């Protein structure tokens, strides 16, 4: 049996403070197979984002962070790698990439999109020339249904909408065909229509490239459509896991049931039928002017 793309075993995280160590993660364990889309769901502050940042190696340099446990990527224990070797795994071919929660603040506002995109491509091809980089960037933006990729490449992040910036981030994250994509609530900053379109495009792209995904979200409606399996995290503990359909149909843990019951639902008989009678709405408006209902109907 081949190694999973990502395996986390007994991951613990604490932060040292003046009053002592504050424990955040209490023994997280999960795995993601090749091409599998796994969701990590829970409320804000439950430990979802810090888990992804540990995988990417973003918290290890903090002096206050206390991390223990095993994080393996493609069978390699990441904690045994030197910082330079771990940094080399970010954004390169068959490595890992991350989509952050707020796309606009994640893109440097002082550089046009093409400059940022070329830096991403240079992670896999350090000597890539401008023409080749532009051609690849245009193709990547076209993959996420951006109709005017040339204009977008010459734009700055603040000149684009949140949905457009999110698509740019997805295109950048997948440009070098990573083996693992860490998606930290990629639809939070978007309205529901743009969110649905963006996540559908991301789903199609990761399936096309056979990319494994750790999808972090508190939106259970999106998770149900996107993920193959789900892990539920509560106060730094995995309290339930399982195939998406089974977990939604028969949740076992009280917290999972509470999350599902918190999903907004449209109840009742829908919008009531209202007679389209102009006199009904205009009569009060003109009554004080001495118009009778008969005169109004004329």
CATH architecture of the domain at 6-106 and 180-267: 3-Layer(aba) Sandwich
Based on CA atoms alone, the radius of gyration comes out at 25 Å
- Structural class comes to alpha/beta
**CATH fold-level assignment of the domain at 6-106 and 180-267:** Rossmann fold
**Main sheet: strand order:** 6-7-8-3-9-10
CATH superfamily of the domain at 6-106 and 180-267: P-loop containing nucleotide triphosphate hydrolases
Question: Helix tally?
Answer: 13
Query: What's the count of strands?
Result: 10
The poorly predicted ranges are none
CA(first)-CA(last) distance = 83 Å
* Mean model confidence by pLDDT: 84
Strand content: 15-25%
| CA-based shape | globular
**Major sheet:** 6 strands, mixed
Helix content: 25-40%
Name of the top-level CATH class of the domain at 6-106 and 180-267: Alpha Beta
Name the helix and strand elements from N-terminus to C-terminus, one letter apiece: EEEHEEHEHHHHHEHEHEEHHHH
Structure description:
The chain has a domain at 6-106 and 180-267: Rossmann fold. Helix content is 39%, strand content 23%. The protein is built from 13 helices and 10 strands. The chain has helices spanning 48-56, 83-87, 103-106, 113-124, 130-143, 149-154, 162-174, 192-209, 220-226, 244-249, 254-261, 278-287, 293-297; strands spanning 6-17, 20-32, 37-41, 65-73, 76-77, 96-99, 180-184, 212-217, 229-234, 237-243. The strands form 2 sheets. It has a 6-stranded mixed beta sheet with strand order 6-7-8-3-9-10, sandwiched between helices. Strands 2-1-4-5 form a 4-stranded antiparallel beta sheet, covered by helices on one side. A hairpin with a 2-residue loop joins strand 9 (229-234) and strand 10. It is globular and about 55 Å long. The mean pLDDT is 84.
